[in-house]
Amino acid sequence: MALTWLIGFLYSKLMAETDRIAAKRKFIGFLEEKNLRITAQRRAIVDTVFGTDQHFTAEQLLEWAREKDSSVSRATVYRTLPLLTESGLVHEMDFGKDYKIYDPNYADHPNHNHIICDDCDKIVEFESDRLDQLENEISTGLGFKVKTQQLRINASCEEMKRLGECKNKGN
């Protein structure tokens, strides 16, 4: 049983890495089609974006990319983000904050849902067969066919409910 789980886990990690490599190649091809140079800074940004499955802000991306290449500029990050979203490989999300959140898993899983903690801004991604079934039932009943679907749930951390504060607030 443990060996089966381990094999499944390793297989899923390998597939995720394969998907990331394919996404990176697709984006490089997208840049080439637009006759845009693939500079060292842009490569550091691309490596960073396709090296994580975490949601991120532009400022987080800048910080992470600078760990790979300290010369990465804020301007290059802000010029590259619209290209990433235009390519369809990253999705820009607006949760009503004064900044946008970017989702690098969008191309692999365009139909997925998010729970956002209003206390600490933590984002948890989830999928649900029951929700998929319900959305198809509703759409079909109303004469539509689903292309994409996104559900956003705003909530408070259980820790906030238990303790009156969230240890992640401000992090």
Task: Write up what this structure looks like.
The chain has 171 residues and is of the alpha+beta class. The strands form two sheets. The chain has a three-stranded mixed sheet with strand order 4-3-5, with no helix packed on it. A two-stranded antiparallel sheet has the order 1-2. Helix 2 crosses helix 3 and helix 3 packs across helix 4. The longest helix is centred in the first third of the chain and has 32 residues. The termini are far apart.
What's the arrangement of secondary structure elements?
Blueprint: H1 2-33, H2 40-49, H3 58-68, H4 74-86, E1 91-93, E2 101-103, E3 112-117, E4 123-126, H5 129-141, E5 150-155, H6 158-163
Parallel strand pairs: 3-5
Antiparallel strand pairs: 1-2, 3-4
Beta-strand proportion: 5-15%
Rg, alpha carbons: 19 Å
Total strand segments: 5
Shape: globular
In round numbers, the mean pLDDT is 83
Feature tags:
single chain, 171 residues, alpha+beta, three-stranded mixed sheet, two-stranded antiparallel sheet, 6 helices, 5 strands, globular
